[in-house]
Design goal:
This protein is α/β, with parallel strands linked by helices. Helix content is about 55%, strand content about 15%. The protein is globular. The termini are far apart. The chain binds NADP nicotinamide-adenine-dinucleotide phosphate (NAP). NADP nicotinamide-adenine-dinucleotide phosphate (NAP) binds next to helix 1 and helix 6.
Length: about 260
């Protein structure tokens, strides 16, 4: 990609964390952007900064993605404006820590709606357009927790396992149509995630903590290279190797300890 790449990039969850960093790094490459999230003022402030700094076009879309009808309307609005999305960063999502039975069912289902149903809907509508144009790239943001069930993150880990499996399957399905699908599986990172998930930061997590910039750089490179999935950071890669190399009870006990203290 060059400094004047004119293909549109749509980023969900662009108002903080990884999404904000994806916006910065794609802006640096000269891409016009569509920024999507619920907090309008944060999106507008970011858009203004990126327009000024990189002289790119930035469209702000305030959308609650947990409403599937709103996802369909967003897609329609962009089509009506003649904007073809060539790169989709499917990043919006949140976690929830706590014992499954003690948590409100509503909170778990709201998370599944965003992390699973909405991600599926966005991927579906934009992948159809990309297939018709025979070009496009889709990045799905899963998690290191996609590789195993984790105590007190039962629904979140299961939701992210879905994202990883969806991404792996779509990578093969859409490859022949000229569309790349890559799944990014970050470990603990310094974003708004922990606060939103009411997550306790254990000493092990503080040790593993990555900054959003290298995680996002790894995701963009993997997408550009057409990889099926990627885990950023050596320590996180080592944890995935542990899930291949040890019995399930052992690595599940290890990660539960790291996540819960
Ligand atoms: N940070 C980590 O440790 C970590 C590790 C592995 C995976 N992840 C994944 O990384 C992705 C990004 O999270 P993050 O770490 O960057 O956390 P974050 O800073 O909390 O960002 C989450 C983003 O999702 C958006 N969002 C949440 N609910 C939404 C909704 N209903 N509609 C539209 N947008 C919504 C938020 O924007 P608004 O609140 O403005 O809507 C925000 O921009 C998530 O999928 C998360 O599961 C994070």
């Amino acid at each position: 990609m060059t400094k004047t790449d004119s293909s549109w990039v749509l980023i969900t969850g662009a108002s903080s964390g990884f999404g904000e960093e994806f916006a910065r790094q794609y802006a640096e490459q000269g891409h016009p952007l569509v920024l999507v999230a619920r907090r309008l003022e944060r999106l507008q402030a970011l858009a203004e900064t990126l327009r000024r700094q990189f002289r790119i076009e930035v469209v702000v879309e305030q959308v609650d993605l947990s409403d599937i009808a709103a996802v369909v309307q967003l897609h329609r609005r962009l089509r009506e404006r003649g904007m073809a999305i060539d790169i989709l960063i499917n990043n919006a999502g949140h976690g929830l820590q706590g014992p499954f039975v003690d948590r409100q069912l509503d909170a778990a289902l709201t998370m599944v709606q965003l992390d699973v149903a909405s991600l599926t809907a966005i991927t579906h509508v934009f992948a159809q357009d990309m297939r018709a144009r025979r070009r496009g790239k889709i990045l799905l943001v899963a998690s290191l927790l996609a590789y195993q069930g984790v105590q007190n993150f039962a629904v979140y880990a299961a939701a992210k396992a879905y994202v990883l499996r969806l991404g792996e399957a779509l990578h093969r399905e859409l490859k022949r149509d000229g569309v790349t699908v890559t799944t990014l599986c970050p470990g603990m990172s310094d974003t708004g995630f922990a606060a939103a998930a009411q997550q306790k930061l254990t000493p092990a997590l503080k040790l593993l903590m990555m900054q959003p910039a290298p995680v996002v750089r790894t995701g963009i490179r993997a997408l550009q290279a057409g990889r099926i999935s990627v885990v950023p950071g050596w320590a996180n890669k080592a944890l995935v190797i542990l899930t291949w190399a040890t019995p399930r009870w052992l690595h599940q006990a290890f990660l539960s300890r790291a996540m819960n203290g």
